[in-house]
Design brief:
By secondary structure, this protein is α+β, with helices and mostly antiparallel strands. It is built from six helices and ten strands; from the N terminus they run E-E-E-H-E-E-E-H-H-E-E-E-E-H-H-H.
Length: 208
């Protein structure tokens, strides 16, 4: 294992020679056989999702994987959670977020934990011009679904993340994300209608 750069409830992320290692954590409260099976299933699912997503949007390239570990390309860029508030290109970044998410949803890929902490902005020089690429990372909670409810929930999680982490700019960024999502997705009308329902349920619960 390399240098640990992040740790969550499900996995430890480390960096080793420009390779990201994602190791799913053993859970001592589970039976060893069950724990191994769950880690294997979830690692395989994430590997498959990354493979499918790679044909649609920028994501880290999978180098290899085993039953509980995925080796990923290290993306040298700026984590959006630490950059968005000071960026002068918020509208352009928001457009990329909306486009990326729409492309995933149109192929029934749900990210599951879409926050600016799970996005990396990388600028690549092309003919003397810096072209921005927005990478979505960490598909550990992702899955495949055709349901508008799941796609709407993906959007709702993103909106809440913006309001929590980037509250001064959340409204501006969210409007640009929605505009790009509507323009890119062939199913945006149904998803956004469901999003209204998801948000109304949240408002109802907040009253009680």
């Amino acid at each position: 294992m390399g240098k640990v750069i992040a740790q969550g409830a499900e996995a430890i992320i480390s960096l080793k020679k420009n390779i990201i290692l994602k190791d799913r954590i053993k859970k001592s409260y589970r039976l060893p056989e069950l724990d191994e099976k769950l880690r294997r299933i979830r690692t395989k699912k994430e590997f498959k999702l990354l493979g499918k997503a790679s044909f649609l949007i920028p994501v880290p390239k999978v180098i290899k994987h085993n039953s509980s570990q995925i080796e990923l390309e290290y993306i040298k860029g700026k984590k959006l959670a630490q950059y968005l508030n000071t960026s002068k290109n918020k509208s352009k970044i928001a457009k990329l977020i909306g486009e990326n998410l729409a492309k995933l949803h149109d192929k029934n890929i749900i990210h599951g934990d879409l926050t600016t902490s799970n996005m990396i902005l990388k600028e690549v020089e092309c003919k003397g011009t810096l072209v921005p690429y927005l990478y979505f990372i960490d598909f550990g909670l992702g899955f495949e679904s055709k349901r508008a409810e799941d796609k709407a929930t993906d959007l709702h999680v993103l909106k809440e993340a913006l309001e929590a982490k980037h509250y001064k700019h959340a409204n501006q960024v969210w409007k640009s994300i929605l505009k790009a999502y509507k323009k890119t997705s062939s199913n945006s009308k149904t998803v956004l209608k469901q999003l209204d329902k998801v948000e109304s349920r949240g408002r109802y619960k907040a009253q009680y």
